[in-house]
Specification:
The complex is a heterodimer of chains A (about 325) and B (about 350). Chain A is an alpha/beta fold. Helix content of chain A is about 45%, strand content about 10%. Chain A contains 11 helices and 9 strands. In chain A, α1 runs antiparallel to α10 and α1 packs across α11. In chain B, the strands form 3 sheets. Chain B has a 7-stranded mixed beta sheet with strand order 3-2-4-5-7-6-12, sandwiched between helices. A 5-stranded mixed beta sheet of chain B has the order 9-11-10-13-14, with helices on both faces. In chain B, strands 1-8 form a two-stranded antiparallel sheet. In chain B, β6, α8 and β7 form a beta-alpha-beta unit. The chains are: A alpha/beta (about 325), B alpha/beta (about 350).
C-alpha cells in the first residue's frame, strides 16, 4: 500500500471527486439509450484516478488541457457539471453552446482551457499556453492529459523538445490504457518502448506509476507540479490504467474479443474508486455510514444537472453562423 | 498605386513588411515573431533583419524544425493572450502544420462556443523560379481559403504588405498571410507610421472600362503589365487585386463586371478546384446577366512545377497569356495586341535580371 500522501480531508475529497466522475459517467451510460445525447461519448469509467490525482495537485488557476476522453479531466479540474451535461444534450447553455459536444470541453473560469478529439493535438497547445505565460510575470503550471496512443504522434516529440528547450512549467500526463480504439499496444509500439525514456531522451524528466491508485497519482503529480512551479521545467508522468467500457459509447464491448475476459477482470478488481474507498475505510478516513449520504448528495447534483440540460433550450438557428470569426 | 497612399516615399515589399513588424513589436508587447531563421543573418528575405537586436531573442525567436508542433505552441500562446507572428520560408512547409492550422486554429473559437479567439498570423511564402521545383513552389492559397475560421490574405503592393500585416496582427482571428517571393523586391509608395489595409475588399490597381482582370498575388503584377500593353492597343482593363481570399468580399469584382461585362481571372495556383474557380463561380452566380462573354481563368499548368527552367518556363501564365485571354473575352484579334509586347526576357526563371539565385 502506498504511504499516506494526503490528509484525511484531502483523501476524502479525492474519493468524492472520483465517485462523482464515476456516477456522472454511469448516468450518461444509462441515459444514452434515450437518444437525446446526440454526440459520441468516450467514457472514462475505470480511469478516474488519473484525472483526480493530477488535478488535486494543481492550483485553481493552473491550466489543464484534455483529449477525446476528457469528461473526468474537465470535472476534476472543476468544470461546471450543468454546462457539461447541457453540452452533451447540444443545448445553448452548454459549455460550448452546443457546438462542441462531449469531445470539446472547456471551462476557462477554472483553467480548463480545452479538450479536442484529434489525438495529440493539445500537446503543443498546452506547451504554448505555458510558453505564453513566460512573457508575463505570472507563469502558471499547465497539465496536459493524453493517451499512450498520442505518444505515437510526431507532435508528441515536437512538444517535448520545445518544453525542454524553454524549460517550461508543463506536466505531461500520459494515461496508458493499453488500447487505441481496439488496437492493442502490442500492434502499435515495439515491446521495449519505454515512454518515460522517450521523454528523458528529449530532455523532459519522467516517472511512471499506478494510474489506478489516486494517491500514487497525486504524489507523482505533486512532485511534477512543484518542479514546474519552482522553475525546474517539464515532467512526463506515465499512469497505467484501463478503460472499462467500449472505446466510444455507453456499453461494454468485451464480446468483440479484442481483449480477454481475464485481462478485463484483473483490471476491474483494481477499480480505482472501490480500492481507494476500502483503503479509506480501513484507515478510518471515511465512515461506512457516510457513504450513503455522499452518494445521494452526488446523485442529487447529477439529477439537477440532467434536469438543467434537458430543460435548456437548443441554440437558435442563427447560432450556426456565430463565432466562426471574432470580427 | 492605391489612391490613399499620400506619401511619395518608396519602399520594397520586403522593407514594407519589415516596417510593419517593427511597428507592431514596438506598439504591442504581446506580439512576438517566430520561425526557422527569423533572427538569422538573412532575416526571412530581409523582412525580419535586425529585429532581434531591437526587441531581443525572447520576442524574435528561432524555433525547432517542427512545423506542426510549433504551430500548436503559437496557438497555445495566443490562448493566454499573446499575438504570435509565425513564418515559414516556403508555403510548402506548412503542409506539415495543416493539422494545427485547420483543425485547431480555424476551429477553436467556433467549437468552444466563442470562449477563446486565436489571434495568430502565419506568414507563408510562395516560391517561384531558379529551380524551386515541385516542393518549393506550390501556391496553396486555395487549401486555406476553403476553411471557415481562417482569414487568408495575399498582398500585392508594398503599401498593402505593410497595411495588411498590421491589420492581420491586430485581428483577433487566425490570419494566413501569403507572400510571393517575386513580390519581395518590388517597389511602391509606402507611408511612414501606422496604418491598416482593411481585410476584405478587393484593391483596384488600375481603372478600365473594357474588361475586368481579377488577380491574386504576383499575377496582379503580370496583369498590370498586360494592361499597359492592352491600353496601347485600345483595350482598357480594370485590374483588381484580390488581396483577401477569405472571407471573400467579391462585391468589388461583381461591380466591375457589371460595368465591363467581361472577366479574366488570374491566380497563382492550379486552376482545378483552385481559387480562380471560386471567383468565376461567384461572378456567375451573382452577375451572370452582366457577362457578355464566357469568363476566362488563368493558372499554373496541371502538373507539379518542374525544376529545370527548360520545362518550368511553361508552368506559369505570363503577360502574353493574359493578353490572349483578354482578347478572347473582348472578342478581338489577339495578334495585333501581342505584336505590341516587348520581346520576352532571356531568362524566364527570375523576377528580374538582378536576381541571381539561389533562393
Amino acid at each position: 500500500m502506498t504511504a499516506i500522501a494526503v490528509s484525511a480531508v484531502e483523501a476524502k475529497t479525492m474519493y468524492r471527486d472520483m465517485l462523482r466522475i464515476r456516477l456522472v459517467e454511469e448516468r450518461i451510460a444509462d441515459l444514452y439509450s434515450e437518444q437525446e445525447m446526440r454526440c459520441p461519448v468516450h467514457l472514462c469509467i475505470g480511469q478516474e484516478a488519473t484525472a483526480v490525482g493530477v488535478c488535486a495537485a494543481l492550483e485553481p488557476n493552473d491550466y489543464a488541457f484534455g483529449s477525446h476522453r476528457s469528461h473526468g479531466h474537465y470535472l476534476a479540474k472543476g468544470g461546471d457539471l450543468g454546462r457539461f451535461m447541457a453540452e452533451l444534450y447540444g443545448k445553448a447553455t452548454g459549455c460550448c453552446r452546443g457546438k462542441g459536444g462531449s469531445m470539446h470541453l472547456i471551462d476557462v473560469s477554472v483553467g480548463f482551457l480545452g479538450a479536442v478529439p484529434i489525438v495529440g493535438s493539445t500537446l503543443p497547445i498546452a506547451v504554448g499556453a505555458a510558453f505564453g505565460g513566460t512573457f508575463t510575470n505570472a507563469p502558471r503550471v499547465t497539465a496536459v492529459f493524453f493517451g499512450e496512443g498520442a505518444t505515437e504522434e510526431g507532435v508528441f516529440q515536437e512538444s517535448l523538445v520545445f518544453a525542454a528547450l524553454k524549460n517550461l512549467p508543463v506536466v505531461f500526463v500520459c494515461e496508458n490504457n493499453l488500447y487505441s480504439v481496439y488496437s492493442s499496444l502490442a500492434v502499435r509500439q515495439p515491446p521495449d518502448r519505454d515512454i518515460p525514456a522517450v521523454a528523458v531522451a528529449n530532455g523532459v524528466a519522467a516517472a511512471r506509476g499506478d494510474g489506478n491508485d489516486v494517491e500514487a497519482v497525486y504524489e507523482l503529480a505533486r512532485d511534477a507540479v512543484a518542479t514546474a512551479r519552482g522553475g525546474g521545467g517539464p515532467t512526463l508522468i506515465q499512469l497505467d490504467t484501463y478503460r472499462w467500457r467500449e472505446h466510444c459509447g455507453p456499453f461494454y464491448d468485451n464480446d468483440l474479443g479484442y481483449r480477454t475476459p481475464e485481462e478485463f477482470e484483473e483490471w476491474r478488481t483494481r477499480c480505482p474508486v472501490e480500492t481507494f474507498k476500502a483503503r479509506l475505510l480501513d484507515r478510518g478516513d471515511l465512515q461506512v455510514d457516510a457513504l450513503t449520504s455522499l452518494t445521494a448528495e452526488i446523485e442529487a447534483e447529477i439529477d439537477k444537472a440532467v434536469r438543467f440540460a434537458k430543460e435548456s433550450p437548443f441554440p437558435e438557428p442563427d447560432e450556426l453562423y456565430a463565432d466562426v470569426y471574432a470580427g | 498605386m492605391p489612391a490613399e497612399a499620400p506619401a511619395a516615399r518608396q519602399l520594397k515589399f520586403n522593407e514594407a513588411l519589415h516596417e510593419a513588424l517593427d511597428l507592431a513589436l514596438a506598439a504591442d508587447e504581446r506580439v512576438y515573431l517566430l520561425g526557422l531563421g527569423v533572427p538569422d543573418p538573412k532575416g526571412i528575405f530581409g523582412t525580419t533583419s535586425g529585429l532581434v537586436d531591437r526587441f531581443g531573442s525572447h520576442r524574435v525567436l528561432d524555433m525547432p524544425t517542427a512545423e506542426n508542433g510549433m504551430t500548436g505552441i503559437a496557438i497555445g500562446s495566443a490562448l493566454v493572450g499573446m499575438r504570435p507572428v509565425m513564418v515559414h520560408q516556403r508555403i510548402d512547409f506548412a503542409t506539415l502544420a495543416i493539422e494545427q492550422i485547420v483543425n485547431q486554429a480555424a476551429k477553436w473559437r467556433y467549437a468552444f462556443g466563442g470562449e477563446h479567439s486565436v489571434p495568430i498570423v502565419i506568414r507563408l511564402i510562395v516560391g517561384r523560379g531558379w529551380g524551386q521545383g515541385p516542393q518549393h513552389s506550390q501556391s496553396l492559397q486555395s487549401w486555406f481559403a476553403h476553411i471557415p475560421g481562417l482569414k487568408v490574405v495575399m498582398p500585392v503592393t508594398p503599401y498593402d504588405a505593410k497595411g495588411l500585416m498590421l491589420a492581420a496582427i491586430e485581428d483577433d482571428d487566425p490570419v494566413i498571410f501569403i507572400e510571393h517571393r517575386w513580390l519581395h523586391q518590388l517597389h511602391g509608395v509606402v507611408p511612414e507610421g501606422h496604418y491598416v489595409t482593411p481585410i476584405g475588399p478587393v484593391r483596384r490597381l488600375r481603372e478600365g472600362a473594357d474588361v475586368t482582370i481579377a488577380a491574386t498575388s504576383y499575377m496582379a503584377v503580370e496583369a498590370l503589365r498586360a494592361a499597359d500593353v492592352l491600353a496601347r492597343g485600345g483595350v482598357e482593363a480594370d485590374v483588381l487585386a484580390v488581396t483577401t481570399l477569405r472571407p471573400l468580399d467579391a462585391s468589388g469584382i461583381i461591380d466591375s463586371v457589371r460595368s465591363t461585362g467581361r472577366l479574366v481571372v488570374a491566380d497563382t495556383s492550379w486552376r482545378s478546384s483552385g481559387f480562380g474557380a471560386e471567383l468565376v463561380a461567384r461572378v456567375s452566380e451573382e452577375a451572370h446577366g452582366a457577362l457578355r462573354a464566357a469568363p476566362r481563368r488563368l493558372g499554373t499548368v496541371e502538373t507539379p512545377v518542374p525544376t529545370t527552367p527548360a520545362l518550368a518556363q511553361f508552368s506559369y501564365p505570363r503577360v502574353p497569356d493574359l493578353v490572349r485571354a483578354v482578347a478572347e473575352v473582348v472578342e478581338t484579334d489577339a495578334e495585333p495586341l501581342l505584336a505590341l509586347l516587348d520581346p520576352p526576357p532571356h531568362h524566364l526563371d527570375v523576377p528580374d535580371s538582378t536576381f541571381t539565385g539561389p533562393f
